[in-house]
């Protein structure tokens, strides 16, 4: 029973050493990239619109946007 508990703890520790360094490397890859969530909006520009996306690309932002089903 004790051997099983020790094995379980070792597996959990091994899991954390394998997973978390990868997460850190992925996050570091995006540190110097500017993102415009739903386009570059504000100051009268509505988010998730063609105008917001145009402003984001003109100002050198990477974009992330939402896609919604408008009709079935």
Which bin fits the share of residues in helices?
40-55%
Uncertain residue ranges: none
Radius of gyration, in angstroms, nearest whole number: 22 Å
Topology as H/E string? Answer: HEHE
Number of strands: 2
Span between N and C termini? 57 Å
Q: Overall 3D geometry?
A: elongated
Estimate the strand proportion.
Answer: 5-15%
The number of helices is 2
Average pLDDT level = 82
Order of strands across the main sheet: 1-2
* SSE-based structural type: mainly alpha
For the biggest sheet, the summary is:
2 strands, parallel
Outline the structure in words:
- The chain is mostly helical.
- The chain has two helices and two strands.
- It has a two-stranded parallel ribbon with strand order 1-2.
- It is 51% helix and 8% strand.
- The model has no long low-confidence stretch (mean pLDDT 82).
- Strand 1, helix 2 and strand 2 form a beta-alpha-beta unit.
Give a brief description:
The protein is mainly alpha-helical and 72 residues long.
Chart the SSEs and their pairings.
Elements: H1 2-29, E1 35-37, H2 50-58, E2 62-64
Parallel strand pairs: 1-2
Provide the descriptors you would attach to this structure in a database record.
single chain, 72 residues, mainly alpha, 2 helices, 2 strands
